[in-house]
């Protein structure tokens, strides 16, 4: 039984490395390929703000919202959690 367990864990690990990880790497490398960060604004998070709403306010017209959210997360080394009063960088991008 222990051998089967090790085999299952090994197969899951290999699957993750070769199939799941490249999907995310490919997403990040292609999503912003045609854009250049030219400046950053500082934005103070207000009560009730969400990362999606902030991104929608500042995103370039032809950029997908999900791609711009990733750009904000990358610029600030954050996930989705933001707190009122927190100051975050808003990347200004252009094609």
Describe this structure in words.
Helices cover 53% and strands 18% of the residues. A two-stranded antiparallel sheet has the order 1-2. Helix 2 crosses helix 3. The protein folds into two domains: 31 residues; 61 residues, LysM domain (Membrane-bound Lytic Murein Transglycosylase D, Chain A). It is of the alpha+beta class. The chain is elongated, with a radius of gyration of 18 Å. It is built from three helices and two strands, in the order αβααβ. About 8% of the residues have low confidence.
Please summarize what this structure is.
With 95 residues, this protein is an alpha+beta fold. It has helices at residues 2-31, 51-58, 65-76, and strands at 36-44, 87-94.
Q: Note the overall shape.
A: elongated
User: CATH homologous superfamily of the largest domain?
Assistant: LysM domain
In the predicted model, the low-confidence regions spanning at least 5 consecutive residues are 23-30
Number of helices: 3
CATH architecture of the largest domain: Roll
Biggest β-sheet, characterized? 2 strands, antiparallel
Helix content: 40-55%
Q: Give the overall pLDDT as a whole number.
A: 80
CATH class of the largest domain: Alpha Beta
Q: Report how far apart the termini are.
A: 56 Å
- Secondary structure class reads alpha+beta
How many separate structural domains?
2
Reported by name, the CATH topology of the largest domain is Membrane-bound Lytic Murein Transglycosylase D, Chain A
H/E order of the elements?
Answer: HEHHE
């Amino acid at each position: 039984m222990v051998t089967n367990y090790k085999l299952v864990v090994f197969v899951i690990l290999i699957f993750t490395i070769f199939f799941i990880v490249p999907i995310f790497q490919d997403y990040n490398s292609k999503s912003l390929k045609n854009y250049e960060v030219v400046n950053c604004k500082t934005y103070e998070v207000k009560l009730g703000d969400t990362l999606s709403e902030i991104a929608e306010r500042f995103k370039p017209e032809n950029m997908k919202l999900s791609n711009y959210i990733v750009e904000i997360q990358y610029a600030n080394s954050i996930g989705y959690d933001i707190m009122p009063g927190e100051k975050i960088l808003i990347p200004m991008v252009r094609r």
